[in-house]
Amino acid sequence: MALKLNPITFQSRKYTPFSLPPMASLRSPKFVVASVLNSGPKEVENVKKPFSPPLEVHVQVTHSMPPQKIELFKNLEDWAEQNILVHLKPVEKCWQPQDFLPDPASEGFHDQDPRTENSPYLGFIYTSFQERATFISHGNTARHAKEHGDIKLAQICGTIASDEKRHETAYTKIVEKLFEIDPDGTILALADMMKKKISMPAHLMYDGRDNNLFEHFSAVTQRLGVYTAKDYADILEFLVGRWKVEELTGLSGEGRKAQDYVCGLTPRNQTAGGKIAKQGQTNTGHAI
User: Is-contact 118 63, C-beta < 8 A?
Assistant: First the structure.
């Protein structure tokens, strides 16, 4: 299968990099899953069909940005140009995922929504977590490859890890800024995203043979230390510290409840094994 991520972006054609395009184009990050199986024509009616992993369906919620929120993001244009665009590579020097993926319009592609609900708050929080997770997992894969003598694979994974690190830096800076200018809205979004769990649709992975490929894959990544439940918990603790969530003041009643919830998830506020580690167990491999 192939996974294609279309995150909320801060580049545009004619408007400034962080200005908001028309509302219809503000979309949640989406994952496109392509099956690598070629389904030939059915010759016999009772021929057993190849296994197709079930799609996880969420009740979709679409948020409308109120005028004051739209204005808030428009006011970030100059800040974004000075603080975010510095992390971008010239597009002509970058490989493009679509160059290596099947046509998204082809049969076998499925859109998967990570439940960011068309909200930039949820989208930037999701990608902050996801990019750090992929930085960790690709970095660990590079280390394993080097230890076992596959230098080319180590270089490839190392390059991807460094790209993911830059993405993480950009997204976490944006959320850090959102906490500065709208702490109440941002903490509510962070709590909402953590209740949903940060996951990617790797559970749909299928190689044409193993109906439980994702479970086996997760067990291997956990055992080898590529991406583990501890990594999931550590990422949350890192972001809570980076965004100074425990130090937020002036929150509404709902905001304080959200703050308590998020801070209560961090490993240092949990007993051995705590619920964040259990939550991480169900997400091991999702962000790989």
Answer: yes
